[in-house]
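Study this protein:
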Amino acid sequence: MQKTTPRQCYKTRLPHGSRWLYEPAIKPYAGVSLLSSAPTTQQSQPRVTIEQMGLARIPLGHPYLYEVEHIHLALAHIGVNISDNQVWTTYNLVAGDQIACTYSVAPLYGAYITHYIRSSKIPNKPPFGATAQIVLDNYEKAAGDPSTLTYCGFTEVDNDDSANAVYRAFRALGKKREFQRGGTIVCRRGTNGYADFCRHNVLVETVKSINRRYGDVINRNGNVEYLVGVTVPNKDERDHYVKPNIYILATIGR
């Protein structure tokens, strides 16, 4: 099969957000939201494979270093050191000539990152937990044991709600300026900025969905222990700072 991977498609776009705002206009909220209102159970809910979703998986080889270096930086801030892009393998999930997802996986480090996802391009999308099921199926098919999945990340976040969550966390930690000009924050569960980082954040919702629906498969304790945000500055033609590139990482507690 012909390789179909425009590298410029590496954007984490999810059909969830609404607008880009540094100062969020967020509705009242308490707690961390989950992906759906499906009932909570102690036993794992049924899963479907990406083939059953009508998708095909195309290996693309190793990502370029610049595509994962900011995730490496995020991992380094929580004590995980990866310097080689060769530990990652990148794939596209396609439906015909449409790319539904681009991701990279490094089972040796228990790591999975999403570069691009459009659930609207999944022909047979399950009624709930589609992203969680995609992550687990992709990780397993890359020879990863689900009980070792520890780090989940998004690169170049383009989802407005998630970007606003990262901004709020930077602001809570007194790093509002660094958000635009480039910086890194680490929020541990229960510390300052953590709740802001969680609120309406699609990455957190995905990890929570995996924890809730497939906890016995991944052997988790139900918590998102650490959240890491990395921003890379961008400027417009007038040399003004504009929306930065945002990279986020979450760790599954055990």
About this structure: Residues 1-10, 12-42 have pLDDT under 50 and may be disordered. Residues 202-218 form the longest helix (17 residues). The first strand starts at residue 56 and ends at 61.
